[in-house]
């Protein structure tokens, strides 16, 4: 068991906290945040280097895609393990691949041969159909759909309920 440091204690950070706590894989979980009075906050974002000895794992729970990916890279360079957190109520195909620092929330579906990059958010009820790709730093919003064979480019957010169509759907 390790100790998890979550960067960001806002709404997404609290979701990550609950998911990590339910997983039971960490003996301690705390936040870093520059603007929070939450008692679980143990320092500011910049304190991640000073806390490396006390925490083994870290995850950037920041909604802003470029910042989340940037912090994920900083944490990795500092020697933290970036966990991949998947809710047990999500469906994840055995052939799906999920990058480090990514989070898969309840009722999401990652179908056959899906590839999810690093530091991605796969939100509640979203679907990535077979052979689709979510590149690094993406956010698949609530009930968003990436259809078969489509690619969500790096740092892109597909908002709630939006559909990214398959490339062959546009060929007539």
Quick tags:
172 residues, alpha/beta, five-stranded parallel sheet, elongated
Shape: elongated
State the helix count. Answer: 2
Report helical residue fraction.
10-25%
CA-CA gap between termini: 53 Å
Structural class: alpha/beta
Indicate the mean pLDDT.
Answer: 96
Main sheet: strand order = 5-8-11-14-17
Largest sheet: 5 strands, parallel
Strand content is: 25-35%
Order of helices and strands: EHEEEHEEEEEEEEEEEEEE
Which spans have pLDDT < 50 for at least 5 consecutive residues? none
Rg from Cα = 16 Å
State the total count of DSSP E strands: 18
Fold and architecture overview:
This protein is an alpha/beta fold. 15% of the residues lie in helices and 28% in strands. Helix 1 (11-23) links the parallel strand 1 (2-7) and strand 2.
State the gist of this model.
By secondary structure, the protein is of the alpha/beta class.
What's the topology here?
Blueprint: E1 2-7, H1 11-23, E2 26-32, E3 41-43, E4 57-60, H2 65-77, E5 85-86, E6 91-92, E7 97-98, E8 103-104, E9 109-110, E10 115-116, E11 121-122, E12 127-128, E13 133-134, E14 139-140, E15 145-146, E16 151-152, E17 157-158, E18 163-164
Parallel strand pairs: 1-2, 1-4, 2-3, 5-8, 6-9, 7-10, 8-11, 9-12, 10-13, 11-14, 12-15, 13-16, 14-17, 15-18
């Amino acid at each position: 068991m390790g100790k998890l440091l979550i960067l960001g204690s806002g709404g997404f950070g609290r979701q990550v906290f609950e998911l990590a706590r339910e997983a039971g894989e960490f003996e301690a979980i705390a936040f870093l945040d520059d603007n929070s009075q939450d008692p679980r906050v143990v320092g500011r974002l910049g304190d991640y280097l000073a806390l490396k000895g006390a925490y083994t794992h870290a995850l950037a729970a920041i909604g802003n895609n470029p910042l989340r990916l940037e912090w994920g890279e900083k944490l990795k360079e500092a020697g933290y393990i970036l966990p991949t957190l998947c809710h047990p109520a999500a469906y994840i195909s055995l052939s799906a691949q999920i990058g480090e620092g990514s989070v898969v929330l309840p009722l999401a579906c990652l179908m056959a041969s899906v590839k999810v990059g690093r530091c991605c958010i796969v939100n509640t009820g979203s679907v990535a159909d077979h052979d689709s790709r979510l590149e690094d730093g993406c956010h698949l919003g609530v009930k968003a759909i990436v259809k078969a064979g489509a690619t969500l480019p790096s740092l892109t957010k597909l908002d709630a309920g939006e559909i990214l169509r398959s490339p062959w759907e546009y060929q007539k």
